[in-house]
Structures are given as structure tokens and as C-alpha cells.
Design a protein that fits this description.
The chain is an alpha/beta fold.
């Protein structure tokens, strides 16, 4: 009896603290602007409630990817510049370390809230490593709030949930604290499951609320530091325009002739000199371990399965290898084509739209470094985003 009384008292105290916490940090999320939508920030990605609010807007399209979403952000060729006044609302989700499994969880968390039911996944060929996503990368990109929302989503079937839970369990087996959290959440929150114990259920609801409030506070504080709400209130409404992609490519080429002139790999000269020149001189390189047997392909299937279960129309943008660099690494064109084909086969298996940019491997002024888009690469990426978002 004493234990029950103590528990109820703890619940009352928590409720009071939670109410106070919510009152003190009741700032609202920023309204959509292109700058906020393309903002690369883990607090934004981890906040299921904030993402649900964004994707519920007409014209909003999540764009999942990894480090390529951030590259060129300060240039004139990033989405935050090229897509201005176009009327579309891309929502960037991902940075270095984010891959298909994490994106599948996030999509499962927000799919119910998506108004336009469209999604883009920028597939990096560097994801197709022998071991798939690295354990530390999965751990650092994992959002418990999104995982709980995914588990509670009744549109996602048991087979897909089993796959995600088993993959997350396997990836965290050497991280005891995180592993226990994942297995506990699967037990507490999976739709259709119940502990049969009212105290356990209450504890679960308290835990979920706490996670949500912490993420809310973090996002409000970090977005406030960027003045997104202030920028939104002063943003002028300008006439919508259709991007002149040919003109952008010409400008990108002009810029490229200044930035990439003295290295044989089509990179920015500054990047080559600071990072890759010594590698080439020393010859100390290992052939990358990319494979068509990578677990990443099953994770990609999981992402597309969720699209089907949520009636979401997906498009994969398959970004190319830097052909010159990977020739140097002895990953020849035939091997690279096998990797592209593996991704295309997954897309076709699930009737997903895809854009194959593999013919751009040797395109001038396309890459910043050994893999990331720049200049004409960014123009192509944004054009594909625009075309998919504006298509009926």
C-alpha cells in the first residue's frame, strides 16, 4: 500500500513539474520558411512533434539524406537559394551518419501527418558499405521520440516493425543502456500491445511526455537562437518564379572554372590541397568495401515499405560517385554500376520513382570533394527536388 501511495505522490509531483516546465518553455516552433526547412540541425530532426507540424502544411515535402544536404549551404547553389520564391516547401532531414534505417523510423513517425504524401530520399552510394550503417552513426542519429511515434503508428505492419526493432537491437548490442531503452520502448509503445499493468502504462506515458518536452525545449531554444520566427515575420512575399536551371548551370560552370583548375579529380582545389593531395602522394589508400550485399539495401527496402503502408509517393535521387576519385581507389566503373543497379532494383521492386545521376560521374564542376555535390551537382539536385515537388 505504501508503494502505491508513494507512486501516486510521485505522479502528482511529476505532473506539477511537467506543467511548470511546459509553461516556462512554451515557445512555439518556427513557422515554415525555406531557410528553416533547409536548416541542418539534429534538434529539428529528432523532434517528431515539430516535424509533424511542418509536414502537415500544403506543399511540404520531406527530403531525407545525409551530409550532401549541408554541403554548399553558404554558396549560391544550395536549396536555400535556388528554391527561393518557387512555392515549394522542402524539409531537409539528415546530416552525416543518417542513413535509410534512421530515415525509415522518422518517416514512420511523421507519415500520418503528411498532407501531400510525397517524400524524397537522396541516396548516397557511400552508404553501401559491407556492414551497413555504423553502430555509432546509428546511435548518434537515433531519436527516441521518433522511435516511439513509429512504434505507435497503426498503419505500419508487424513485419516492418519487427525488422526495425531487430535491426536497432543488433546495432546497439554493445551499448547496454541504449539497447535496454530500445527493447523497453518496443514493449511499452508498440501499437496493439499493453503491459496489463496500470502503473507500467502510466510510467510509459510519463516517459514519453518527458522525452517530447525535452526535445521541444531543445528545438525552441536552438531555433530561437537563429531568429527563424523573427525572419518569418519580416519576410516579404514575392512573386513566385520558375527557376532558370540552364542559367544556374552556366553560372555554376563559370564559378567552377575559378575553384577547380589544378587537380585531376574534379574537386575544389582548396579541398584537394588540404585533404587529398597528401593521400595521393603517399599512395596510402584502401579500396572501399562497398557491396551489393550491404544491409543498407534491406534498410532501404524498409523505408519504401513504410511509404507503401502510409500511401506516400517516394522518389530516390541516386547521387553519383566521383568517377575520377574512385578510379584512383580502384573501384572501377563496372563495380560502381553494380552498386547503382542494386539501388535501382530496390526502387523498381517497390514501384518507387527514381532519378539515376550515375552518368554524371565525370561531369566537370560537379563535386566539392570525393563525393559531395557542389556547383552543377547542386543545381541538378535542386532541379530534381523542384520537379518532383511541383509534379501533380
Amino acid at each position: 500500500m505504501r508503494n502505491i501511495i508513494a507512486f501516486l505522490l510521485a505522479v502528482v509531483l511529476f505532473a506539477g513539474s511537467a506543467a511548470g516546465m511546459h509553461f516556462c518553455f512554451s515557445g512555439k516552433y518556427p513557422d515554415y520558411t525555406l531557410e528553416y526547412g533547409t536548416w541542418i540541425n539534429s534538434a529539428k530532426f529528432a523532434n517528431g512533434e515539430g516535424l509533424q507540424q511542418l509536414v502537415s502544411k500544403s506543399g511540404a515535402v520531406p527530403v531525407f539524406g545525409s551530409s550532401e544536404l549541408k554541403h554548399g549551404q553558404k554558396s549560391k547553389f544550395h536549396s536555400n537559394k535556388l528554391l527561393k520564391n518557387t512555392g515549394i516547401k522542402p524539409i531537409f532531414i539528415g546530416k552525416a551518419g543518417y542513413q535509410s534505417l534512421n530515415h525509415a523510423i522518422t518517416l514512420g513517425a511523421i507519415g500520418n501527418s503528411m498532407k501531400d504524401k510525397k517524400v524524397i530520399l537522396v541516396v548516397s552510394m557511400q552508404w553501401l558499405k559491407k556492414g551497413g550503417v555504423k553502430t555509432d552513426a546509428f546511435g548518434s542519429s537515433f531519436s527516441e521520440e521518433n522511435f516511439i511515434e513509429f512504434l505507435e503508428n497503426e498503419n505500419i505492419n508487424d513485419k516492418t516493425k519487427d525488422y526495425v526493432i531487430n535491426r536497432a537491437n543488433d546495432l546497439t548490442k554493445d551499448n547496454d543502456k541504449m539497447n535496454k531503452k530500445i527493447l523497453r520502448d518496443a514493449e511499452w509503445y508498440r501499437s496493439g500491445s499493453s503491459s496489463g499493468n496500470i502503473i507500467t502504462d502510466i510510467v510509459g506515458e510519463i516517459h514519453k511526455f518527458t522525452i517530447s518536452e525535452k526535445n521541444h525545449m531543445r528545438l525552441v531554444m536552438e531555433s530561437s537562437a537563429q531568429d527563424f520566427n523573427k525572419k518569418n515575420s519580416t519576410e516579404k512575399k514575392e512573386k513566385l518564379t520558375v527557376p532558370d536551371w540552364k542559367n544556374y548551370r552556366q553560372k555554376a560552370e563559370t564559378k567552377g572554372k575559378k575553384l577547380s583548375t589544378s587537380n585531376p579529380f574534379g574537386m575544389y582545389d582548396s579541398v584537394y590541397k588540404s585533404t587529398y593531395n597528401s593521400i595521393v602522394k603517399n599512395g596510402n589508400v584502401n579500396k572501399p568495401s562497398y557491396t551489393t550485399k550491404s544491409p543498407e539495401l534491406k534498410d532501404l527496402e524498409c523505408f519504401l515499405q513504410i511509404c507503401q503502408q502510409e500511401n506516400i509517393k517516394p522518389m530516390l535521387i541516386i547521387f553519383p560517385f566521383n568517377g575520377y576519385w574512385y578510379d584512383f581507389l580502384d573501384l572501377d566503373s563496372k563495380q560502381r554500376q553494380e552498386l547503382y543497379n542494386a539501388v535501382i532494383q530496390v526502387a523498381e521492386k517497390y514501384d518507387a520513382n527514381y532519378v539515376d545521376l550515375s552518368d554524371k560521374e565525370y561531369e566537370s564542376y560537379y563535386f566539392e570533394d570525393n563525393s559531395h555535390p557542389a556547383l552543377k551537382g547542386l543545381v541538378d539536385l535542386n532541379e530534381k527536388i523542384y520537379e518532383f515537388c511541383t509534379a501533380s
